[in-house]
């Protein structure tokens, strides 16, 4: 992605007010799209993610024989291949999406044929050994280039394994589960820190049986998946930008409805509460085992306090850490982040870019191998932000810009479309000037 392709100016705001309904969760949309494309029958999804990443998943699955169409009412309709994909002569382009590449690797490893997965420059730098290793243990033939994409898979029948993930990763867990789904015997994945469990919930929704303990999931293969109709809950990681923005302005009030509140994803609400924000959750319901509800947030009159995010919390908040760090200077006591080394191998090195951009805005910040110390009580000024083509950096610093003095220029603003194409329009909608 051309990182300076599009600049966007964000002016300071005086308040955040309004109500929004956000597009469908990226993690859930990837899984619903991939499982529907693999299942028997035709599935339909309302509020499917509008992000480019989920479009990459659907395009790859189309190349593998599924059919995808947009219905007049906005729903996405996916007709699956019934458990057997078509070999694809062209490489499958995963774009910027690590979820697509890692999860599809598990889906394809037990299939017949040779498959090559490629991605953009950012994805081609991200570690893929973490999926090659468990799949190779299952007997798969996978070739990487120095640990990275292109990923070449020579499909073969696999054997079930009992695998403990060395880094907390829902993508790796899902990869192994998707291979286990198609493999004779019981495949178990164990994790030290529970990561997002959308795959477990989605597989059950598509009719698969699996068993769970506090730190493991087991799936007995082979099993067949069956089509579903579902509505994708609003994306809480996209909501994070608005929840943090609203938490910065005493007098703010923001309501987000139909938001995904899966407990493995909703830790941000606890962190904002610990920082002093007032949060209420209403109309909680369950849809295909995913919790959905309305969240109302307003900022404390005395400003946000301070917090430390480390251990299991860091893994659960991994996508929300850039925006939490970006609002750190506006808290009274600062934000301290540790045990978040994974941030360095996301779409960009998010620790380095957060530190660089906070400094550009005049903030003091200390960088660690696995985190950041962002002192509180600071005043920032507008600056030119280098998003590094990373959607979450572009959006995090658009939020920091709302409380800065003067205008901020976000370089590579188009990257927001990776997960949240509507971001800048919705920000304008709720920002009062
Ligand atoms: C995701 C898991 C996380 C997250 C990513 C989406 C998923 O990655 O950062 O945005 O949908 O499973 P890891 O599982 O690699 O930590």
Automatic annotation (TrEMBL):
Binding, 3-phosphoshikimate: 26-27, 31, 169, 171, 319, 346
Occurrences of domain Enolpyruvate transferase (ranges): 11-426
InterPro entries (UniProt xref): Enolpyruvate_Tfrase_dom, Enolpyruvate_Tfrase_sf, EPSP_synthase, EPSP_synthase_CS, RNA3'P_cycl/enolpyr_Trfase_a/b
Positions annotated to bind phosphoenolpyruvate: 26, 98, 126, 171, 350, 392
Any one GO BP annotation for this protein: chorismate biosynthetic process
Example of a GO MF term: 3-phosphoshikimate 1-carboxyvinyltransferase activity
Residues the record marks as active site: 319
Keywords for the protein's UniProt record, in alphabetical order: Amino-acid biosynthesis, Aromatic amino acid biosynthesis, Cytoplasm, Transferase
CC annotations in GO: cytoplasm
Catalytic activity reported: 3-phosphoshikimate + phosphoenolpyruvate = 5-O-(1-carboxyvinyl)-3-phosphoshikimate + phosphate
Pathway it works in: Metabolic intermediate biosynthesis; chorismate biosynthesis; chorismate from D-erythrose 4-phosphate and phosphoenolpyruvate: step 6/7
UniProt-listed Enzyme Commission number(s): 2.5.1.19
Pfam families: EPSP_synthase
Principal location: cytoplasm
Keyword Transferase recorded: yes
Locations listed in the record: Cytoplasm
The organism's place on the tree of life at top rank: Bacteria
Subunit structure: Monomer.
Purpose: Catalyzes the transfer of the enolpyruvyl moiety of phosphoenolpyruvate (PEP) to the 5-hydroxyl of shikimate-3-phosphate (S3P) to produce enolpyruvyl shikimate-3-phosphate and inorganic phosphate.
HAMAP family registered for this protein in UniProt: EPSP_synth
Recorded family membership: Belongs to the EPSP synthase family.
Stated name of the protein: 3-phosphoshikimate 1-carboxyvinyltransferase
Species this protein is from: Occallatibacter riparius
GN (gene name): aroA
